[in-house]
Amino acid sequence: MTELRDPFARAVAVTGIGAITSLGRGVAENWRRLTAGESGIRRISRFPTEGLRTQIAGCVDFMDVDPVTIPALSRAMAEAVTDEAVAASGIAEDGAIDGDLFLAAPPIEHDWDSRFDLLDTVDPGGGPYARGAGAAGTDETLPWHREFLNGSLADRLAERHGCTGSPITLTTACASGASAIQLGVESIRRGERPAALCIGTDGSINSESLIRFALLSALSTKNDPPEQAAKPFSRNRDGFVMAEGAAALVLEHPGHAKARGAPVLGYILGCGEAADTFHRTRSNPDGGAIIRSMAGAIADAGLTPEDIGYINAHGTGTPENDKMEYLGITEVFGAGRERLAVSSNKSMIGHTLTAAGAVEAVATVQALREGVLPPTINYREPDPNIELDVVPNEARTQTVEFALSNSFGFGGQNVSLVLGAAG
Amino acid sequence: MTDREVCITGYGLLSPLGETPAARWAALDDPAAWRARIDEAATAPFPIHTVGDYELEAQVPRPGDRRAMGPMMQYGAYAAGLALDMAGLKDDADLLQRTHMIVASGGGERDLELDRRILEGASGRDNRDEWITAQMADGLRPTLFLAQLPNLFAGNISIVHKVAGSSRTFMGEEAAGADALRIAHRRLAAGQGDIFLVGAAFAAARPDIQLSYNAGGMLLRGGFADLWSRPDAGICFGAAGAFLVLESRESAAARGVAVRALLRGVESDRTDRRAGDPATTARRQLEKLGIGPVGPETAILSGASGAGAATGITAAERAMLEDLAAGAPVRGTAQAVGHAVEAAFLQNVILAAACVERGEIFAPLSPGAPVEAAGAGPIGRVLVTGWGHVRGEALALVEGAG
């Protein structure tokens, strides 16, 4: 039996996008610099890094936030990219969005400064935080509760844009942004609501988070020069570079978008996901979950691997990730990998962690729209064991109809999205 | 296309009430049993409900797996194992490959011993930031701090129990638990998956969380007090691990597994509590669930947190219940199990499944409270409320398998 192939039968339209990375604010500025092959990686100035092996990151230091805390910076970026995406889509011209909100955000914890401030006034109870007689909270300390709840940011975003329903905050580690998009696609396909606001944000570079990832030997230690540290698919790659950023996508049922004459920037055609049960930080050597994720997304889109022209890779630049992603691509695409273009935005903007899936989906939408593939920079020493066209060092003008965007994370998280050009 | 029926084919609950369904039921009818699990000393001045000793090894046999988790993740991995056991999914690699996991987590778990050393040593230092950085660089252990990643809650369950379909972690307090159940229910009803493992866990003795909730003026201080008559700061945390296996009727029938109860619907919304009234939301949710007047055959398990004047929400929920469900037996379960935040709603859905399996409701947990006064006869269905202490209003409907 021949199955009818119609990749647009269950397509979800992208009608608005917004982005912030260390390269700058807004989709246009980011796209200009991504296609110019520029790097946003710099020495960290936010906190002292003496004695740390990694002293570089893709910090977003241009938002109006003081002091910089994880919730404050994550919120400022999320609000800015959401405003940009919603304005571009024109969906909120009536003042509210009839859609769900899915926010990929880092877990909110008190940083050390706020922890000390609070402990000077508020009793944490017995145990390791006990400091003798402390007081109950007051109206003055109430904001320290609200601000540091995991659900507060999504709550505020939903209120700002009049989204209906209960806003969902989620994490699938470094696949979170893609998971937010997948939840939006599923919701629209179920016909519950005609639209969804899918956002990823991550402003969590502080000394503690940097140390934590460094301890896993996950980070590049090539501090000098910073812009050359992220080297996906290179033989001398030595880890990823932590980074901050945010991106938002307005998703809509195509019929809804058409009825209101909205601009369609591209389509999400398929989603795939799989959990790896092998190890907390390593993929199963057989690449099984990565393969299921990519193959699942392509099948969900009603396509075959031959249809895919470009992969926006997870491409972190860790020895392990790039090897396993290549294995997965080889298994799914076979000999067809030779005609694929595969590039990593992380070579320029670093790894925006929770936001990465959303940031890179926006970059993929742009690639399909503009007919330009962003490069993998710092590709000077090809890894002979990774035989891929990585769009080395310079952007390439190339029209692509269908693209795959990969996001993989610690804890066995694997999510892949298939995107299609608006045509 | 009509919605598919959503069945509960397994559940696992680690709670202050004991582990087996029989022990739980006995404890719900015996105030002395759950009162014995209230610990007023461990995190004084804040009393907490504890789960007591349990045999983690039975569900997490490898020592390395146990070491990689803090108490919250251990509760979850344990309860998830119980749920998979009951649903007959354990060790069935083919089915587990198609099992989708959605969990709610309050974040990861910190290395509290390291925090203690830093807090003790940092005071009075001029170069505090540099000193803390050095302490963390020396003191953090990779195996332990991985537990600080909230998605490792689900990740550990994938590793321990081989759940390989997918895993997603929701954060955001009470609403995260309700939304995990809502999304799984909707996906099942619409055919976006056939088997789901949904769960959450909460550790009550968490100074970092207590610090934050006390800053909000939320925590019950001093001795234990009855849920519906607590002072302004009235949340008493309770430890829990709560997991459910949800399955389409077709899937349950095809593999011949017993259906414990039906999950008829889950509604979850956000009310602007400054401008709007959560009771209006509840009324709309009852309509969506197809519920007319709530009579005595419908029991209500309330997830009221106990949060008092800071939010006014416990009193608001009590008023809503007295208005919309005057004839129905209401039980505020936080009285017996404490408030388990992300796990509270799911814990009550599991207790609801037990109620409809037995066709009865346990005795009032707060006997003096008028809201729990309505008499109880045979029970055909249970409504579960989940009004978060600052945000989110949820309602689930559980019915007998028939």
Q: Runs of chain A with pLDDT <50, length 5+?
A: none
What is the correct CATH architecture of the largest domain in chain B? 3-Layer(aba) Sandwich
Which CATH class of the largest domain in chain B is shown?
Alpha Beta
CATH superfamily of the largest domain in chain B: Thiolase/Chalcone synthase
Query: Quaternary status of these chains?
Result: heterodimer
- Tell me which protein chains meet in the greatest interface and how many residues each side has: A-B, 82 and 87 residues
- Quote the CATH topology of chain A: Peroxisomal Thiolase, Chain A, domain 1
Order of helices and strands of chain B: EHHEEHHHEHHHHEHEHEHEHEHEHHEE
Overall mean pLDDT of chain B stands at: 94
What is the arithmetic mean of pLDDT of chain A?
94
The N- to C-terminal Cα distance of chain B equals 23 Å
The number of distinct helices of chain A, counting runs of at least 4 residues, comes to 12
Structural class of chain B: alpha/beta
Globally, the shape of chain A reads: globular
* Number of self-contained structural domains of chain A: 1
The top level CATH class name of chain A: Alpha Beta
What does this structure look like?
The complex is a heterodimer of chains A (423) and B (402). Chain A is of the alpha/beta class and 423 residues long. Chain A has twelve helices and 15 strands. In chain A, strands 1, 2, 5, 6, 7, 8, 9, 10, 11, 14 and 15 form an eleven-stranded mixed β-sheet that branches. The longest helix of chain A is centred in the first third of the chain and has 20 residues, at 70-89. Chain B has three domains: 6-112 and 143-254, Thiolase/Chalcone synthase (Peroxisomal Thiolase, Chain A, domain 1), CATH 3.40.47; 113-142, no CATH class; 265-400, 3-Layer(aba) Sandwich (Peroxisomal Thiolase, Chain A, domain 1), CATH 3.40.47.10. Chain B contains 16 helices and twelve strands. Chain B has helices at residues 21-28, 31-35, 63-67, 71-86, 93-97, 112-122, 128-139, 142-145, 152-161, 173-190, 207-215, 249-254, 278-288, 313-324, 334-337, 344-358; strands at residues 6-14, 38-39, 48-49, 99-104, 166-171, 195-202, 240-248, 261-269, 298-302, 330-332, 381-387, 393-400. In chain B, a hairpin with a 5-residue loop joins strand 11 and strand 12 (393-400). In chain B, helix 4 packs across helix 9 (152-161) and helix 13 (278-288) packs across helix 14 (313-324). The longest helix of chain B has 18 residues, at 173-190. At the A-B interface, helix 3, helix 4, helix 5, strand 6 and helix 6 of A face helix 6, helix 7, helix 9, strand 5 and helix 10 of B.
